[in-house]
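Input structure tokens:
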């Protein structure tokens, strides 16, 4: 089982709008409602890859009940911590002609220190039997950073590999905990390190610094269409998928993380897990919804993905 934690889940409504024109009346040709938030995208992709995800997060109100129902309909098991307030709804507008996606993320309902304690009590027993733990996405409003840090420390104590994909103050908090494996994109890494990360060489250097700061085994930085890098104790690797005509990049980083942890859980070596991760992220970009991809696309991309080893300095 792979435990997929989403502190700030959402109902994702994706509208397909050809020739989107800002400031004018537009008509969608398709509307997709899905259980959303980065951790749920990770779980969806893990399920597609044949893994066994368990979703956990805060849900509230009628929207929260719909999110739980939608996740169940996709055969994603849920362990939900119910709170006051209404689970957020996020809007994603995909223009298939321009191949651009516009995302509007709502903030989500506020949580309290008491809510975090209940979530920790719900999650920690399951964490002991997980092969990997992924915590993905933003923190909800009001989430106390000290409670978040304590939660991460408790997860690390269980001895299961913990992967955190977040940004800003939550990322700085995770780096300070110690023992937390980091998976972020170049923009998120650049923000906490105070520099731009424009290519694989810069990403390898930045991932090494993140690994040292987090005192963890691994750090990963994704570079969108320019691939990704992984730094581990044994060294580093970069990988690149072939050029594609992307439909939407929403959820590609989440599919990447799903490919990575599923690969490791299946006994793949780090470079082969990275190859699967890159292919899953690229396959996701060919689809409309986050964490969704076609296995035939994945297989074709796997064959064309290149992985290069780098010596860690």
């Amino acid at each position: 089982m792979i435990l997929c934690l989403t502190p700030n889940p959402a109902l994702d409504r994706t509208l397909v709008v050809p020739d989107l024109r800002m400031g004018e009346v537009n008509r969608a040709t398709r509307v997709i409602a899905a259980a959303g938030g980065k951790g749920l995208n990770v779980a969806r992709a893990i399920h597609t890859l044949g893994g066994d995800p368990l979703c956990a997060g805060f849900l509230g109100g009628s929207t929260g009940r719909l999110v739980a129902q939608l996740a169940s309909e996709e055969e994603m098991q849920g362990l939900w911590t119910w709170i006051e307030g209404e689970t957020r709804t996020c809007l994603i507008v995909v223009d298939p002609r321009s191949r651009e996606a516009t995302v509007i993320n709502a903030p989500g309902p506020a949580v309290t220190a008491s809510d975090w304690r209940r979530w920790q009590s719900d999650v920690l027993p399951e964490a002991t039997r997980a092969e990997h733990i992924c915590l993905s996405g933003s923190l909800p409003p009001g989430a106390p950073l000290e409670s978040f840090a304590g939660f991460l420390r408790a997860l690390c104590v269980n001895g299961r590999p913990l992967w955190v994909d977040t940004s800003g103050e939550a990322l700085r908090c995770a780096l300070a905990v110690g023992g937390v494996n980091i998976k972020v994109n170049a923009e998120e890494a650049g923000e906490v390190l105070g520099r731009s990360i424009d290519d694989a060489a810069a990403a390898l250097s930045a991932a090494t610094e993140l690994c040292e700061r987090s005192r963890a085994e691994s750090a990963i930085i994704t570079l969108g269409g320019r691939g990704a890098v992984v730094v581990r104790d044994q060294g580093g690797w970069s990988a690149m998928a072939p050029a594609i005509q992307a439909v939407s990049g929403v959820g590609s980083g989440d599919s990447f993380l799903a490919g990575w942890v599923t690969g490791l859980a299946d006994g793949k070596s780090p470079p082969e897990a990275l190859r699967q991760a890159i292919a899953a992220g690229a396959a996701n970009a060919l689809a409309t919804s986050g964490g969704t991809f076609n296995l035939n696309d994945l297989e074709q991309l796997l064959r064309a993905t290149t992985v290069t080893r780098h010596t860690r300095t």
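Residues 124 and 155 are 7 Å apart (CA to CA). Residues 2-310 form a domain with the UDP-N-acetylmuramoyl-L-alanine:D-glutamate ligase fold (CATH 3.40.1190.20).
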